[in-house]
Amino acid sequence: MILPNLKNKTICFFLIMALILQSCAVYKKTPVTLNEAATADGKVLVVKTDNTKLKFKKIEQIDGVYYGLIKTKGQIEKIPLTESDLKTIRLLDKTATTIGNVAIVVGSLGIVLLVVAAIELADWGDDWGNWSY
Fold first, then answer.
1. H helix runs in 24-93, sequence order
2. What's the CA angle centered on 43, arms 38 and 46, to 5 degrees?
3. Cα dist. 20→23, 31, 41, 105 in Å?
4. How far apart are CA 114 and CA 106, in angstroms?
5. What's the pTM?
6. What is the pLDDT of residue 101?
């Protein structure tokens, strides 16, 4: 009775972890300028001089002022950015993000299948000495 319950909990755990980790993002190693980030029109990781990290949906320039766009409570909020407060600006690496997310899902499903197979094989050997002719 314990093994079917353990199997269900294990499968649920690995599937939940796969879904949680699927939202991971990988950023390029090379930093870019604020102007390049604004023209890239994609997700951006900004590290400020006090080492706080900000993840923006995108950076846009309005009347010579740069703004980072963050979605909070269903609304888009514009945060003004000054170059003197910024340490590095890195763009989202779409290829590495996609490969990483696919690898996480495939790896998690593979582990789930291995665990299920191991549990099933453990059940399979219980009747070895009870043969009747």
1. 34-40
2. 75
3. 6, 27, 25, 10
4. 12
5. 0.67
6. 81
Question: How many CA atoms lie less than 13 Å away from 1 in the CB half-sphere?
Answer: 0
Mean pLDDT of the 66-93 span? 91
- Structural tokens at position 97: 């993000």
pLDDT in tens, 103-127: 877 887 788 788 777 777 766 655 5
Amino acid at 36: E
Amino acid of residue 70: I
pLDDT, tens only, 65-75: 999 999 888 89
Instruction: Please tell me the distance from the alpha carbon of residue 115 to that of residue 118, in angstroms, as a whole number.
Output: 5
Exposure string of 87-118, with b = 16+ CB inside 10 Å and e = fewer, is eebbbbbeeebeebbeebeeebeeebeebeee
Q: Among 2, 46, 18, 47, which residue's Cα sits nearest to residue 112?
A: 18
Q: Which amino acid is present at 4? A: P
Of 2-6, 28-32, 46-50, where does mean pLDDT reach its minimum? 2-6
Query: Which sign, positive or negative, has the C-alpha torsion 79, 33, 39, 98?
Result: negative
The structure tokens listed for 69 are 């766009």
DSSP character at residue 128: T
Amino acid found at 67? Y
